[in-house]
Design brief:
Layout (H helix, E strand, L loop, with lengths): L1 E6 L16 E4 L2 E4 L10 H18 L3 E5 L2 E5 L3 H17 L3 E2 L11 E4 L2 E4 L4 E4 L3 H14 L5 H13 L7 H4 L1 H13 L9
Antiparallel strand pairs: 1-5, 1-6, 2-3, 4-5, 7-8, 8-9
Helix pairs in contact: 3-4, 4-6
Length: 199
Amino acid sequence: MASVDLKHAYYSVPIHPEHQKYLKFNWKGQLYKFTCFPNDLAFCPRKFTKLLKPINSYLRQLGHISVSHIDDSNLQGGDYDDCASNVLDTTKLFDSVGFVIHPDKSSLIPKQQMTILGFTINSVEMRVYPSKDKVPKIKALCTELIQNAAPTIRQVASVLGLLVSNFPAAQFGPLHFRDLDMDKTEALKLNKGNFDKHM
């Protein structure tokens, strides 16, 4: 496995001058406009993913296996040489269309274990688990929730969201969160959708 991260991916995508007028904002009395994809604009992740579709499709036609999420790509291969070929073709193609590979965030040498999108993937053991920095955070938030006699619905929802986001790495996770989720939903109904009320 290897990973390719695009440097300033959104800023590599220019906005047509006719459409820049829709991306204006005022800051400290000065009018600004975006000339490229801005961060935090709702449609940008979907548009950027669609923009990369032909690139990923071409790489698949070459026989390469890759999974992309916005500006992160996880590259795979049957063996070291296969993965190295995938890395070479992917980086060449991204470079040829004007993207810049982030050297610090990319892992261009094939490995059997790597962390991507908050999960550690081990191809020898065939396991996926939360990254090292996620586990203490999950434990701390769960401990805090258990020790709180009357947490807010928002606190419970936050912990539930974190737990659900880790389901790909927790085989039995879906079996153990439902009671708490149902309690949260019931408390939300009783409090007319107010997340700041206590349970």
